[in-house]
Amino acid sequence: MAQWRSENSFLILLSLVRACIVVCICARGSHDREFNGSILVPPNRALFYMDRKRSRATRQAPLAPAKKLSLTHIAILVCSKLALQICKLARLTRQECKLETSLQKRQSHHATNLQQACHVKLIANIAKTEYRKKLGLELATYRFQSGRFNHAAR
Questions:
Q1: What is the pTM of this model?
Q2: What string of DSSP letters covers the chain?
Q3: Which of 62, 97, 110, 124 is at a distance of 20 to 30 A from 143, taking alpha carbons?
C-alpha cells in the first residue's frame, strides 16, 4: 500500500511538472501572439501571491480596470503555484519514503530474528527426534558386540 502511495505521488508530481512546462512554453511560444500578448483582468479580482518572509498567501490590491496581464505573467503565476505544490509533494514523498524504509528495516530485522529463532528450535527438535530414531554415529559398543572392532586393520 505504501509503495502504491509513493508511486502515485510521483506520478502526480510528474504531471504537475509537465503541466508547468507546457504552460510556460505556451506563454513564450506562438500562443502569446495569438492572444495579442495580453489578457484583461476584471477590476474586482485580486491576485494572491506567496510572501516568502511570512510563508503565507498575501492578497494583492485589485488591479485597475484597464490593466492588462500578459500571458507570460499568468504563466509565471501558475508555474509558481505549481512549483509550491511540487515542493510540498516532494517533501511528503521524501518523508513517506523514509517512513517506508524504516518500516521495511524493522520488518526485515524482526523476520530475521524470528527465522533464526525458529531455525534454532527446529535444529534442536530434529536433534532430539533423530537421535532417538536413527543414530547418525556408530557407537563403539556396536563394533565390539559384532566382532568388527579390528576391521580397519584387515
A1: 0.25
A2: -HHHHHHHHHHHHHHHHHHHHHHHHHHHSHHHHHTTT-EE--TT---EEEETTTTEEEEPPPPPTT-EE-HHHHHHHHHHHHHHHHHHHHHHHHHHHHHHHHHHHHHHHHHHHHHHHHHHHHHHHHHHHHHHH--SS--HHHHHHHT-TTTTT-
A3: 124
CB 78 within 8 A of CB 49: no
Each residue's pLDDT tens digit, 66-115? 455 566 666 666 777 777 777 777 777 777 777 777 778 888 877 777 77
Environment class of residue 38 by beta-carbon count within 10 Å: exposed (0-12), middle (13-18) or buried (19+)?
A: middle
Q: Backbone phi, then psi, for 50, in 5-degree steps? A: -90, 120
Q: Which grid cell sits at 29?
A: 511560444
The Cα 78–Cα 22 span in angstroms is 11
What's the gap between Cα 13 and its chain centre? 12
Question: Do 13 and 71 touch, CB atoms closer than 8 A?
Answer: no
Classify residue 96 as exposed, middle or buried by CB count within 10 Å of its CB (0-12, 13-18, 19+): middle
Match 504563466 to its residue by C-alpha cell. 75
